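User: Fold this, then the next.

Assistant: Folding the first:
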Amino acid sequence: FTLAAPAALAAESTVTIKTAEDLAELSRNCTLDTWSQGKAVILENDLDLHGVDFTPIPTFSGTFQGNGHTISGLTLTGSGNVRGLFRYIQNGATVQDLTVSGTIHPNGRQDDLGLLAGSNAGRILNCIASGTVMGDNRIGGLEDDPKTDYTNLAQLNSMENVPAYTDVGGVAGYSKGTIQSCSNSGSVGYDQIGYNIGGIAGRSAGWLDGCVNTGSVSGRKDVGGIVGQLEPEVLQTFSEDFLDKLDQVLSG
């Protein structure tokens, strides 16, 4: 039995990512759902994943500090649900200050897709996603100029086909965690198609704070500039300055 020094413990809990190969190794390590608990992952460079044998990070429970860097060239094809740079961001995890760009276009199963994460139960802070995501349900990070086949418009809008194109958002399709200080400027959704369409999140059962959307948002039902559908309840908080200004306006 050897008692490790504090410096050694700190080194073990910090993971530095300098190359695309380092990121691929992180993905392999995170196959075990407990491996990333208590770890701080620090990205020190911009990374290009073109030509790299990279699979989505299966599950992440630690802190990923992007330091304002960009991970580009993310390309995910094949069959499978819950796809993105991270498949699952777990409760208690944080991903921040990161830009992800690339293309996700699976065949076969196509649910829960997002450039940053397929499923978020943690915190996404100051992140940007750009590129193309094509799939069926719970889609995040849509392309700026989406294209679709309108020949099946009637079928897509049929009440017998309600699951089609649901939970679509610029940053996250469905989030039960926190999305804070994130922005979207791309077009989201399709004209008269889809349910739960939002500029930031299609559907949220978590917390949205300080997010900005300047892109157009289109859909059939439950469409919003920030979020399409909030569940199970809505809580709005305002600063004292805002309340003072509102009181002045109302009092004339």
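Now the next one, as you asked:
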Amino acid sequence: PITIRTILGDGSVYDLTKVQVYSKVLMDADDLTEIFGSTGVLGGYYVLGQDITANSSKNYYRTSQKFTGIFDGMGHVISNVNIQHGNGSLVSLFGELNNTGITAATIRNVAFVNLMASNGALVWNSANGANRENVVPSISNVYVSLSTNSTKFVGLLYNSSFVTINNCIVEDARTTTQDTT
């Protein structure tokens, strides 16, 4: 976050604090690959500029790497995302949500339609507890519709206890007896 200072004509000063500047506006499947195919710590403020259809032949995932930023779908849809690893390991789209800095990792305002998961989750883990500014990672206003080809979706979160979840829906239209929590 940055602070923007404005000096008005009468000499008074007005500060906007904690201003978030977009790191990247995601516009196509290549942009998704850049975010969800990367390794290591991923920080920044990412927004969707439009609905995006992912490359359905590509696997998008981060294993246990940390996501420290904000992902705001701005009400847009990402469709046809495959979350799976070639060797069958458990993976997730965002990796671990971290709670560093003055804002914790956030995923919000996005729909994942026709999401195909094979031993995958939206988020692998979250950091243990609130940080010194008492902020906790969050997932809000997220909709997930699973593909009928999904074999194991382990949920919005796997192996996590410190995260705030609000207004999230997971729709599983498959006819299966497998646990998809």
